[in-house]
Each structure stands twice: as C-alpha cells, then as structure tokens.
Design a protein that fits this description.
This protein is mainly α and about 325 residues long. It has 11 helices and 7 strands. The protein folds into 2 domains: about 55 residues, Ribosomal Protein L15, Chain: K, domain 2; about 240 residues, Four Helix Bundle (Hemerythrin (Met), subunit A), CATH 1.20.120.920. A hairpin with a 5-residue loop joins strand 1 and strand 2. The longest helix is centred in the N-terminal third of the chain and has 29 residues. The mean pLDDT is about 90.
C-alpha cells in the first residue's frame, strides 16, 4: 500500500496494484525510499509537473528490448514506411477534426440554424484540404503535408472560436511555450495536451520504440518526435472534445484560473477529472472494445508491428 499525506494533515492509502502512473507537482513533493522502490518494482511511472507542465519522470529501468525493432524504426525514416506513417497521421488528424465538428454541428442544428450552416461551410473547407492530402497519397512530400495540416488546423480553430462563448476570450490557438496565452481555453488545452503527451510517452516506452525517432515531426534531442506523432491521433477524440463541451455547457470554466491567470488547484482537478473520465470511456477500434487509455497503450505496439513487417498497414486512432 502507498500512504499519501497532504500538507493540511489529510491521509489516503492506495493499493500500488491499482496504479499505472502518478502525476505530482514537483514543488513541495517528497517521497520515501521505500515508497519509491515499491512504485518502481510494480512498474508505476511518476510524472513531475512544474507550472502545470511536465518537466521529468521516473520510471522502471527497461531490460532488453528488440534490437531489430530499433534498427527498423531508424530504417523506416528513410523509406516508404516512414512516408506512409507521416501521410496517415496528417490525414487522420484532419479527419478527426472534421468528425468532431460534424458531431458538434449535429447537436447545434436544433438550437442555432445559422451557426449550424456556418459549421457546414467550415467543415467543407477542411474536407477540401483532406481530399487534397488524400489524393496526393503517401510520398516524399512531408513539408507539403505539414503545410496542409496547418491549413486545416487554422480553419478548425477558427470554427472552434465560433462555438465558444465570447467571454472566454479565445482568439485562436496559442501554445504556452511561444505565445503565453491568457484565455482559459488555451491554458486548459496546453495543460491537458501536456498530460496526454506524458500518457503517450509512457506507452511508447513500453512498446520498445525510441520516442525520439519520429516520422512527421522533426527529430530533436529536446522533443520526443515519435510521441508528438502518436499524440496527434488523440488530441480531438480526448482533449478537444471534452474541453469544447466543458466551455460551452455551464459556467464551471470561470473558476479554473486565479487572478494571475494560472490554473487553480480546483481547476486542475476538474480538468483531470474530465480527462481521466474520457480515458475510461470504452470504444471499439481495430475490432477491440476497450477503454481509450488501453488503445493509447496499444497504438505504439501496432505501429511497431507495422515497422517490422508483421502488419501491412498502420491505422491511426480515429474514434470520436
């Protein structure tokens, strides 16, 4: 059992067998050596946050690993396998954006015919970009794919802006690292995207794939490009979907930021509650009905099978 103590005096015991990972704020956190050994022995990953973004993690040392897989992962960057993966990731992301907007439009049609018509036209614009990517096919066109993904995303976020209440203050997608957003929607997006990245990273590590050898995002020692690749599959089905609903239904979103424009503890808990509830939702994908969190674990394994030739193709996650 793991004993958790809070500064205010509260205590809680949790069975280590029921944990896959723990997310903690680095500031003020401490752990005993016995607790650390217990967690590592049972394969529990610890993710550390600072200012609401992951800064590091502790996880058990992996033993072995497929040398063939690592070699083939590198070789695939140079041949048709890597090009096919990049093409499918872009095509799938655009499809997920379209399908999420279609789902929202279906609900909005009964309440706001004018908005529903605007959504229809925006969906058609994104679909046109999708058809361009689809007709191009898999090939050595990665810069073009990236430009088309950016074009579709620009229209997508413009459409999301129409859905959100004006008081949210969302004026377009703003990433924390570069743009320092102040509106609660962008801040919530950045927070949950960071949590999603740690979830995907853990799954990639368990699969035996190298998280830094990707196919769409450029390789970088500072950024796990394969994690960023696989994360694209789950942005709309998990994070975007729950946050658009959260910000358009009710007023709870008004309480997630403090006066300095940072997430409050209550705000973080609310967002994590929505996120993990979404992960527990069972869906059918690749003929398997499982919680979404299980599909996150399986996708790197499916990709690995494609890379080494055990599967003829790789299908990114596409259930909205």
């Amino acid at each position: 059992m793991l004993l958790i103590k809070k500064a205010g005096g509260g205590k809680r015991t949790v069975s280590v067998g029921n944990l896959s990972h723990i997310i903690v704020n680095a500031r003020g956190f401490s752990i005993s050596g016995d607790a650390l050994k217990l967690l590592l022995r049972h394969g529990v990953q610890i993710v550390f946050l600072s200012k609401n973004r992951p800064i590091g993690k502790l996880q058990p040392m992996r033993r072995g690993g497929s040398i063939k897989l690592k070699k083939e992962q590198f070789k695939a960057q140079m041949d048709d396998r890597g090009l096919n993966i990049a093409w499918r990731i872009v095509l799938n992301k655009i499809s997920n954006q379209i399908n999420l907007l279609k789902r929202i439009r279906k609900v909005r049609m009964r309440r706001d015919a004018k908005l529903a018509e605007e959504l229809r036209m925006d969906i058609e614009r994104i679909d046109y970009v999708k058809k361009e990517v689809e007709s191009k096919g898999a090939g050595d066109y990665k810069p073009w794919y990236i430009s088309k993904e950016a074009e579709a995303s620009r229209i997508y976020w413009e459409t999301v802006n129409k859905l959100l209440p004006s008081e949210v203050g969302f004026e377009g997608r703003r990433k924390k690292r570069f743009d320092r957003p102040s509106d609660p929607f962008n801040i919530a997006l950045n927070y949950l995207y960071s949590i999603l990245a740690s979830e995907v990273w853990f799954a990639v590590e368990l699969s035996g794939l190298d998280p830094y050898l990707g196919y769409l995002h450029e390789d970088s020692s500072r950024r796990p490009s394969l994690v960023m690749d696989l994360m694209e599959e789950f942005r709309q089905p998990i994070v975007d979907k729950i946050l658009i609903h959260f910000f358009t239904v009710g007023k709870d979103w008004k309480n997630i930021l403090n006066q300095e424009g940072r997430l409050t503890e209550k705000g973080r808990r609310k967002l994590l509650e929505l996120y993990y509830k979404a992960l527990d939702r069972k869906v059918t994908f690749q003929n398997r009905t499982l919680p979404i969190k299980a599909h996150i674990q399986l996708q790197p394994l499916r990709l690995a099978k494609y890379i080494v030739g055990y599967m003829q193709s790789y299908q990114p996650y596409n259930v909205i």
